[in-house]
Amino acid sequence: MQERRVRLLALLSARDEMRFLPGLVANVAPHVDGIVALDDGSTDGTGEYLEGRPEVVELLRSEATRARWDEVSNHRGLMAAALRHDADWVLCIDADERVEREFRSRAEAVIAEGEPRGVQAYAVRLRELWGSTSHYRADGLWGRKAVARLFRALPDHEFDERPLHAVKAPLQARIDGQFPVADLELFHLRMIKREDRVARRRRYEDADPEARWQPGIGYAYLTDEHGLELRKLEPRRSFSE
After folding, report:
1. CA nearest 96: which of 180, 169, 199, 1?
2. CA-CA distance, 110 to 35, in Å (whole number)?
3. Could you tell me whether strands 97-99 and 181-188 are parallel, antiparallel, or unpaired per DSSP bridges?
4. How many C-beta atoms lie closer than 10 Å to residue 68's C-beta?
5. β-strand 8-14 against 181-188: which pairing, if any?
6. Spatial distance between the Cα atoms of 50 and 48, rounded to a whole number of angstroms
7. Exposed / middle / buried, residue 114 (Cβ in 10 Å: 0-12, 13-18, 19+)
8. Count of helices and strands (H, E) across the chain
9. 3-state secondary structure (DSSP) of residue 227
10. CA distance 44 to 15
11. CA angle 69, 24, 204 (to 5 degrees)
12. What global pTM score does this model have?
């Protein structure tokens, strides 16, 4: 593995995610210098599991009585904790996501390449696994998905205040209004099974019935298989748990 030049911490918010958490920790821990986690009122043992993991450098907790996610407040808390733990860069990741096998060495190279140009944030390609852990969906917008999740820890981080689908990276790090897309891949497991896709669509439609926070796209596409095209993961760019 390439020598580590930056202190990279993973940021994780989770509520009742024991189904995915052990795999996430096993997957991401070798690629980061610690995990800052927030337990958002879990009742399935998520908080206790995270509290017992040596990879977790700090565990934040929100009230179990809070009915809904507060993405912006959660992210503010995680960023403050990352700065307390001297993070240079952070990776925002969800319990149902995984990083590719050589993520850390590739991330180090990407960060070093962008440093002379003052790049402070990157989007990474999001591969929505579909039907199995060996294939991802590639047709239409599925093949173009990228999320701004790898970025420098800035004390003056400008937060996206949208309650859903908020950008995690600091808004001032955009270049010509966009975040450059790094040659890095993140894999999403919760779209593998149809029942999970249906539940995900229902969750977002309940939270955002008019698609105010995802205009022009909405949420019906999450279960629409029209034009379905699957591609096999490259072995060297796949993931392990």
Report:
1. 199
2. 21
3. antiparallel
4. 8
5. unpaired
6. 6
7. middle
8. 5, 10
9. coil
10. 8
11. 30
12. 0.95
| Partners of 58 in the β-ladder | 36
Taking only the tens place, the pLDDT of each residue in 108-130 is 999 999 999 999 999 999 999 99
Position 70 scores a pLDDT of 86
Percentages of the chain per state (helix, strand, coil), in multiples of 5: 30, 25, 45
The span from the CA of 183 to the CA of 114, in Å, is 12
- In tens, the pLDDT along 202-241 reads 999 999 999 999 999 999 999 999 999 999 999 999 999 8
pLDDT at 67 over 70: no
- pLDDT average, residue stretch 192-207: 97
Name the β-bridge partners of 8.
89
Burial bucket for residue 160 (CB in 10 Å: 0-12, 13-18, 19+): middle
Would you say 14 and 40 are in contact if contact means Cβ atoms under 8 Å apart?
Answer: yes
Write a three-state SS string for 157-208. CCCCCCCCCCCCCCHHHCECCECCEEEEEEEECCCCCHHHHHHHHHHHHHHC
Structure tokens at 136: 């991802």
